[in-house]
Amino acid sequence: MSRPLPLFSRLRLAALAATTAVVLAGCNGQGDLSRRSQQPLSPQMVTMIQEKGMTPSSPILVRLFKQESELEVWKQKTDGTYALLKTYPICRWSGELGPKVKIGDRQAPEGFYAITPALMNPNSSYYLAINTGFPNAFDKSYGRTGEFLMIHGDCSSSGCYAMTDQQIAEIFALARESFAGGQRAFQLQAMPFRMTPKNLARHRTNPNMAFWRNLKEGYDSFEVTKQEPKVNVCDRHYVFNAQVEGGRGFDASAACPNYTVPAEIAGAVAAKRIADDQQIAALSKSLPVAPVKTGTDGGMHPVFLAKFRPVGAEANDYTVDVNGTPPGTMPETTRPPGISPESQVAEGGAAVRPGADETSVPTSGGPRVASGAVQQTASLNGQGVASAPVLQGSTTIVTPGAFSSAR
Predict the structure, then answer these.
(1) FRET pair for 35, CA 20 to 30 Å: which of 113, 222, 249, 268?
(2) Which is more confident, 183 or 24?
């Protein structure tokens, strides 16, 4: 949603890979250009990292769940496995459940993406931003289009995952420290929902189910091993943990080469799939089918949504505390799901900014409004989850970190 600055892209890559704030801040002689991106991890976060057997510079992995409106940051422990560090409520995402197909469909991406330092944008107009890398090889094999699909601040989404400014500052800092520690890229797993038997049973008639089943293979690999799955694309689908036999590599649009998967991983994933499928079959006999399209344009985590209208304490099969202060500050222009993009004009005539995946067109003599709000493939629950500037533990929402929300 926030376009990178071409003149600074290479310098930004080098700066983020470096360990000092001085290098980045001095980029092109503009000392305060990227000051937001250099906010240190809070003492509370450093303590949390240490208590979980991690280090600030150890690798990270990020998972996104649309239906639950949650972003998870996982971090590698000293034993080489990943453990959940924090769960952040997502402030806003747009579209419906399902992959992004084309520019203007307002869909947020789903799939597996590799985030390199070059995709980190310290100069975003949405406070800070991390480009998802859409379209990846899988997306390109289907001819999907879109650009600048981000995880960013500002709580406003047109095809992105929007957090509060305080939240994105902390997530950005976690990624920065991992890059400084030597991680070349971190994996982003963007899912329509948590791949539980109950969710899959509810969405059993969704036209995206074959795609989601493919994503579940990688999701299950991570669940059973707590190791980042190796991702390749061939024959227009994802393959995970593949070891190629012979000299031919992977081509997203060509037939898959001969490959094997380590027996211990393949066996564990297969056992999980069989157990899950049995539960899905049983649940499908009684669970109502979720709608494919909701017409609500995305979601917002209940902790944020409660500031706009009453919400139940139960959401997405887990209990959410909707009382208290949301993690981070929502701009006055923030709009909950259910308000069409064309009507998102702030009081007093100020227009809500469109995202970079939408175009902005002037109306005659009036404010600028977002256009191209065509809804594409979708599914599911309009509750969603919105991002907030602090995170949430596995069950309880924690207070926000001490990051500045100044824009």
Answers:
(1) 113
(2) 183
- The residue among 49, 55, 57, 54 whose CA lies nearest residue 17 is 57
pLDDT-based confidence at 311, cuts 50/70/90?
confident
237-296 pLDDT per residue, tens: 999 999 998 778 999 999 999 999 999 999 999 999 999 999 999 999 999 999 999 999
Q: Are strands 150-152 and 161-162 parallel, antiparallel or unpaired?
A: parallel
End-to-end CA distance of the chain: 16
The CA distances from residue 154 to 49, 180, 348, in Å, are 26, 26, 20
Can you tell me the distance from the alpha carbon of 66 to that of 109, in angstroms, rounded to the nearest whole number? 10
CB 301 within 8 A of CB 385: yes
Domains plus CATH for the chain?
Answer: 6-283 (2.40.440.10)
User: What would the DSSP string read from start to end of 305-374?
Assistant: HTTTS---SEETTEE----S--SSPPPTT---TTS-GGG-B-GGGPBPPPPTTSEEEE-TTS-EEEE---
Structure tokens that stand for 132 in this block: 């998802």
Q: Pick the catalytic residue: 91, 155, 160, 234?
A: 160
Separation in Å, CA 313 to CA 294, 309, 404: 21, 13, 30
pLDDT given for residue 321 in this prediction: 66
Contacts of residue 216, Cβ cutoff 8 Å, sequence gap at least 6: 195, 200, 273
Give per-residue pLDDT as tens, 65-95.
999 999 999 999 999 999 999 999 999 999 9
From CA 132, how far away is CA 281, in angstroms rounded? Answer: 34
Whether residue 236 contacts residue 142, with contact meaning beta carbons closer than 8 Å, is answered with yes
Q: Among candidates 360, 82, 309, 67, which has minimal Cα distance to 190?
A: 67
Tokens, residue 395 = 């069950």
How far is residue 243's CA from residue 230's CA, in Å, rounded to a whole number? 9
- Tell me whether residue 237 is one of the annotated catalytic residues: no
Q: Which class for 395: exposed (0-12), middle (13-18), buried (19 or more C-beta within 10 A)?
A: exposed
